[in-house]
Amino acid sequence: MSAPSPSTGSTGASAAVLKIGGLDLAFRQSDIRALESASDMDGNAPLERSVGWIAYMRQRWPVYCLSEQLDVLDSVPPARRTCALLAFEAGYFGLLCDDAAILRQAAGQLHEVPPAMKHANTPILGLLPDGEHLLCLSNPGRMAAYLEHRTRRQSLPEELPCLP
User: Is 2 domain-assigned?
Assistant: First the structure.
């Protein structure tokens, strides 16, 4: 799957589809470095807003868990059985999903994200109908930036107290 560009209209390469509840999150197949069992995750001393660590290339990488609305979760639902390890410029990170599948030919009309879903930090770059499913296209760099934004924002207090 080439970099999503709604102006080009369609895409035809293979995609890795991560199923998170009712959400089908698609990445280029080459963006996924490994698929591991969620039971291989080490839950000891996770980074703030992550749920644990996954080992890869003799290092530990943070693992995150999202809801189907893309909220960062602090606990892992029982359905999240797979950890997809994604590669981006700064290294790797894990994303828990219910299941992962390879879609050999993601062919269809690529659509822009509707205005209601579009905000500066969205990890969704485009939408691709695939039969009865709607694939939400992303890439690891955009997802990492989204996770950084969500974890940093959620760790700040709702309101700062006024000093007298």
Answer: no
For residue 142, count other CB atoms closer than 10 A to its CB.
18
Q: How many domains does the chain have?
A: 1
Report pTM: 0.82
- The domain in which residue 20 lies consists of 10-155
CB contact at 8 A, 52 and 44: yes
Q: Output the tens digit of pLDDT for each of the chain's 164 residues.
A: 444 443 334 445 688 999 999 999 999 999 999 999 999 999 999 988 899 999 999 999 999 999 999 999 999 999 999 999 999 999 999 999 999 999 876 556 778 887 777 777 889 999 988 877 889 999 999 999 999 998 876 544 444 455 44
Alpha-carbon torsion (88, 121, 73, 117), positive or negative: negative
20: its two tokens: 């998170």
Count CB neighbours of 4 within 10 A: 24
What percent helix, strand, coil does the chain show, rounded to 5? 15, 40, 45
